Each structure stands twice: as C-alpha cells, then as structure tokens.
Amino acid sequence: MNETEIFDRVVRERDPARQSDLLAELCGDDQPLKERVKKLLSAYEHPESFFEDPANLARDRAFDLTEDSNSDTIMHGTRIGPYKLLQEIGEGGMGRVYMAEQIEPVKRHVALKVIKPGMDSRRVIARFEAERQALAMMDHPNIAKVLDAGTTAQGYPYFVMELVNGRPITDYCDREKLATSQRLRLFIDVCRAVQHAHQKGVIHRDLKPSNIMVAEYDGKPVPKVIDFGVAKATGMQLTEKTLFTEFGQVIGTVEYMSPEQSRRNQLDVDTRSDIYSLGVVLYKLLTGETPFGHDRIRRAAWDEIAKIICEEDPPLPSVRIDSSASLSELAKQRNVGSAQLSSLVRGDLDWIVNKTLEKDRNRRYPSAGELADDIGRHLDQKPIVAGPQSSLYRFGKWVKRNRVGVGVLSGAGLVLVLFGVLAVRGYQETGQRSARVAAATQAAEFAMQRAIESPIGQEAYWETAKTHCERIRDAIADGTVKPATKKAATDVLNEFAFKKSERELAVQIENVVINGAPNTDLASWQKMEREMREFFRKHGFDLDREDPALIGKRIRDHRSKVMWADLLELWIGTLGHMQSIGGPKLSGAEIEGWADAIYVADDDPLRTGIRKFIYQSTHDRKLLDDLVEGVDVTSHSARTLSWLASCYSMVGAHDECDRLFRFALDRYPRDVMLAHDYGYALYHQQRYQEAARMYHRCLTLKDTVPGLWKSLARTLKKLGEKEAADRASAKAAMFESRNGLGM
Amino acid sequence: MTEVTRILNEINAGALDVDSDLLPIVYEELRRMAAAKIASEKPGHTLDATSLVHEAYLRLVGTQSFESRRHFFGAAAEAMRRILIDRARARQADKRGGQSDRVELHPDQVANADKGHDEQLQRLDLALEKFARINPEKAELVKLRYFVGLKTREAAEILGVSTATADRHWAYAKAWLQTEMSS
Fold first, then answer.
1. By the CB < 8 Å criterion, does A52 face chain B?
2. Is the ipTM value over 0.85, yes or no?
C-alpha cells in the first residue's frame, strides 16, 4: 500500500484508538512512511482556517486587472533597476513604452518597454537571455540596439532599447510627402538592416511600420528598426488568444504577418517571414493600404483572417492605387499627380511586391538583401529579378534607360532629328501598349500556373487568373498592339479557357468520389458508379456501348488525358469494390478489357506499375520497391502518390505508407481526397486515433460532406467514443438530407 | 460552433493541446471579464471567480452540453490560478516597496488587500506546484476547488469521478498541502 491508500484507509477509521493500530499495521517497518502519514493525519484533523473555505480563496479582494491599473502603478519618477522613468511614449499590444533615464554606468536616455501582466516573466527573460548573444552581435546604423532586459519589482518583464525619437516609417513618409522613389530609398535601408540581423541569426518576427521608426539625423531621414528580439522573447504567438481581447492593439501586427505565422502552430518561422512582412510594409508605403485592407482584417474573425492571409492574392499595388477611393490624397502624400501615381508603380514594383508576398516562402526573395538589390535595380532602370523575363521586357528597359542618349544622337542633323523623334515616339506608343499587354499576359500565365497547382477546393487563384485574363482581353481589343504580343495573349486566353473547364470537371469528379467512397453500403457505391458512368457519357465516352480498347485510345489522345485516365481507373476500381461487397460479378473478359484500356490510355511507367500490382493476386513489398526504384516519386500527382502509399499499406509496410502520405500531404496540404485516403489506410491499419485525426483534418477542409462524417463516425465507434460517433453520424445524416434537397 | 468548441473538439482528437491552444484564450477572456467587472463596480468590490468562470463558459462554449468540460474547466482553473497569483505577488511587491519607488495604490485596495491572504496564496501555489508533479489528478481537483471555487460534487462531475472518490482525494490533498506549507 502506498501513502495515499494508507491515508485513505486510516481516515475512514472513526475510532482514534483503532487508527494508530491500523497505521502501525499498514506501515509495517517503514518508519519514514509512518511519519509522513501521521503528519498528514494531523493536518487532516486540525485544518488551518485558510483551507476551510475553498470558495473564499477564489475571491480576490482588489481584484483589479485593468490595464489602467498597470499604468497607475508605474508613474513618472518610478525607478526600475538603474532606470528612472520619465514619460510614457507609446502603448502596444504587449505593453507600454517609456522614455527613461539610465543613471549608471552612463547617464543617457533610453526606451524602456514594460511587458504587461499575464506572461511568464521567468520564461520571457530566459528566452531573452538565450538570444542575448546574437542581439549583441548586431551593429548596424539602421537597427536600434536592445540594451538590457529584466523584471520590475511587480514581476513584469521589461526591455531596454536605444531611444529613437522618430515616427513610424509610413507616417513619416506621408507627413513629409516623400515621393515614391524617396520612399524606396528609405525602404532599401530598412532591408539592409534586416539583412544584417538575419546574417547574425536574428529574426525580427514582428516587422511593421511602428517597429520601423524614421528619425532625422543632420536633417536626413534615417530609418531604425526597433524591437529586435522582443517578439521572440515574449514568445508572441498571434492567434485567437491575442486577437480575442486586444483586437485593436494586435491588429496592426496581424496585417503584417506572413502566412506561415498565421497558422496555428507557428513552429518554423524563418527569415523569409520577415521578407513577407517587409513586403507588406512596402505595399503600404506605395499604396497607403495593407494588401488586404485594414478594415477588412479588422472586421474578420480569426479563422477568416488566417484564410485570407494564406489563400488570397492581394490586388497588385498599381491596381490598388487605381481603385483607391482616396487617390488624390495618396498622390498628394507622394508629391505626384493623381494620374501618374499608379504608372510609377505599375510593372516593376508590382512584380517586386508580388514576389515578397508569395504565399510559398520558397518563391519569395531568398534574402532581404536581394529584395533591396531588386528595388535598387528598379531605381536604376535596370531589369529586375522579380517577374518573368522576356526579351521584350528587357528591351523596353533598355530604351527607357537610353532615352536621353537616343535624343542626343538624333540631334546630329535635321533629317536625323525628325527621323529619330518619329521613330522613337512611334516605338514608344505601340511599344508601351504592347509591353503592357505582354506584362498582363505574363501575370495571367503566372496566376494560371498557380491556380493549376492549387489543390481542388481552393479556387481563389482561379478568380485571380480570371481577372488577369479579363484585363488582357480588354487590352488587346484595341488594335494597336503588335501582332506577336497579340498572338501570345490570345494563346494564354485559350489555354485559360481550356484549363478552367478541365478544372471544373476535376472538381465535379472529386465531389462524386468524396461523397460516394466513404460509404460502406452497396447502394451508395452503385449510385457513385452510375454518376461516374453518366459523367463519361456527358463528355462523349459511352462506357456501356463503346469498345474498351477504343475508349483507351481516345483517352490517350485526349488533351486532358491524365484526368480521364484517373477517372477510368477510379471507375474500374469502383466496379471491383462493388463486386467485393456483393455487387454484380465481372467477367474475366470485362476485367481484361478495361485493364487493357487503362494501359492504352495512360502509359506512365509508375502508374502502369501500380496498376499491375493492384491486379496481381499476390502482393509483395519487393515488387513495389522495384517499381519505385529510380523513379522520381516527388514529381507525381496527389492521386498517384496516394495510390502508391495505399499499395504499401496493403503489403503491411506502414512506415513507407506513412512516409509517402506525409510527403504528399506536405505537398498538397489542402487535398481532401488525399487526407481521406490516408485516414482510410490508417483505419485499416487499426490506427484509429490517427485515422480520426486525419478525418478531422478532412472536415476542417470541407465539413459539408456526409461521407467524411461517416468515416469519422466509424472510426470513433472503434475508439469506443459512442456519443461522439453518434454526433458525427447525425451530422452525416443532416448533410445528406440537405444535399438531397439542395443539389 | 464557437471557436472554443472547435478547439475543444480538436483537443479531443489530439490535434491541439490544452496548454498552448486553449489556456491562452480562456486566460485572456477571464482577465478581460474581470477587468470589465471591476470597472463597473465600486472599488474594492469582491470578485467571485466561480461565477466568472461559469460566465466565461457560457460565452466561449455556449449552452450546449459538451463532453470536454473537463478541458475547459482545467484551463479555467489554471488561468484563475495565474491571475490570482500574479495579483497577490504584485501586491506583495508593492507593500515591500521592492526595488521601485513608492507606487500609488488605490486606498481601498490597500485597505482591502489582506496581507496574510496573499502570502498564504503564494505559499499554497508553491506547494500545489510540487503536489501536481506527484499527483496531477488530485492537483486538478484542488485547482478546481480553490481557484474556481467549485464544490466537491461539481468538481467530481467535471473530472468524471464519483463524489466519494473526490472526497477522498480532497481530504488527502488538503492534508498534504497543509503539511507541505507548514514544513
């Protein structure tokens, strides 16, 4: 018996005399144990008043937690360590900032930031200490040094920084009416500072205008990046918790947050998150707004914000300027006419901003230095790195750069002058329009590529691509575009129309499969099979009458060959599954005929191999390993990866199955079918807990699909969570009836 | 479904974690509600953690019955513990004068702030921290009783144990803590 059990037993003995006998009996020779229990019993018999009324403890007199009380307690003249507070100079989401006087070892003014209550001081300080070395290595004219950190007498952590008497970069630029090019020069300095910090291994994590102060030294504006190391030390995670109550204060930060930071588990934030935030600052400097708009972010719920940041493409800066309600104000603040402002930004700066704001950080500038370099190139009228390069684009740059030179040359003689001027002007007119069409074409191509790569269910990119295409269509409606440019633009429009229709088909197919496949009853599968066959028929493939071999050939020659081959595969698989759950038997000739058709339709070696494997009667891991040998699996589609992983699951190679699925999910994180396939594999490996998690993942992506709820319910039942399973089943039934009415 | 309900679901599914995903929200909500209460009441008014937590539950989770009340109340108890301890610690520091110069406090606060209470609260917290390492489940019960002010029966229901068991655990925990605090 252990201490607890002995205590329980003895306490239940009402007779004091019996108690000590019992104690001696139960403890035996263990004197220390006996002593401990004795003490416990004595405490039990003579409780202190403090313990008597627990509810009373939960009442705190002077339960005053308002932020204001915090400011009341720190007033002018208060001393914190060697610092004397002089005045409050700001308030942020994390705390208040004071101007303070340092007395020892040198007398100087510093900025002191007191972190508000609610944070674990010891951890904040420990984290700060961990980064102190790196912070000390930073030495850059555009970085405000972090000097010290500590804890106030009240237990709040504080940070001491070099005092910067300036204003946030955006305020400064607007107030001083800095032109776009002047803003860019300041911004280059900021990039260089961030680059310096990155080289010393320090990531800022909270770059935003209020952390980039501009002060004037000798009449020249100098930006200073402040708060390096603070976000890391305070472990600031911007999720619901901060948004929940301090919306107003934190929202400024959220607008500058990268997609990877907006996700719930922000485990791997790296230097490229800072690049993204810099991009938002640049966007604001150019357009006066953040990419998704302050008001929109302010009104959105947390989930929506994360969705916006992770999925939506912001309008190009030039487009944002054109559509701005306060264009004249914007232009005035940038010391330029309303008509010119967007043309200053259109093109290069659009591309540069776009590249910094890429959702996929691999596509962003690899470093702040390179971002600075590209802006420098733009200012020098040299070709930039961002955006696709084309000879037309480069040539346009060359002409612009040498325009003065062209003018001087043509001044050599009257004829030459006339000829020169006419020629140059002529070039510029069609040239500029063509260049614009060409740029729009490239933008559309870009957007389209991204849309094609984006998983089903995430259709925002298609909208962006569509907008770009409409822009091209408008631009080429005018006849003065060069024939070659026009042809390229038309090609892109046709390609878009085709890809878009292909995508719509893919979405329809996914709906059919995701609704049907999670069911276990024959009727549902028969329904799914009918829908697939109907789908084929609608697009000119008659599976009932046409010869399988002929269908195979037609698919092989089809423009959307992979998609149709996939669907044919799914259809055959469906027939097979129906047979196994009591559906009609397939004849040998039928099986062979369709298997041949598939081989004809799609001759990719990996997929052919997978099919062979599936139709084989014995399943052996070795066959799969041989199949994968020398194949670049990473280049394959979500479907193919899923099939391969499921094959490994079939032969019991769970490790390989996990590896492939995890890789695929990493690559296609929002693919519902993929996640469902993994859940299905886990379920059959009897890893129900993980399967449930995977189904939850599916449901966060798409929570209106009855089949997914059914899969979850089935898994929960296996886990013995009957109530939860019932709720999931009820959800399935609800969506089923709703879909029955609505679709 | 509220945000918190969703988080509770995900905690159940093992995708999220009470400490890092739920606690911060509950903490902030309780703190904010407490602040709002104080602002609307007379200075020195006594605040009732029990009703505060129940109100927070209604606001964040809603009226539907929910199997994960345990996670919620566990987080709420931990949040209240932090809030109460933080406050007690700050008042203690103020009274000692600490390193800082004289700090203004509302006269009512000074009058009401019970020094012994604050000190005991902090000692209890230290003892409880130790206890939680040895007996996490009993410590959870203690937190629910002390920092949320729940009755044994209520706490038992939330923890999914019988009232008798909770009574036994409570007796042991109380004795253990008192022994620890007087040693």
1. no
2. no
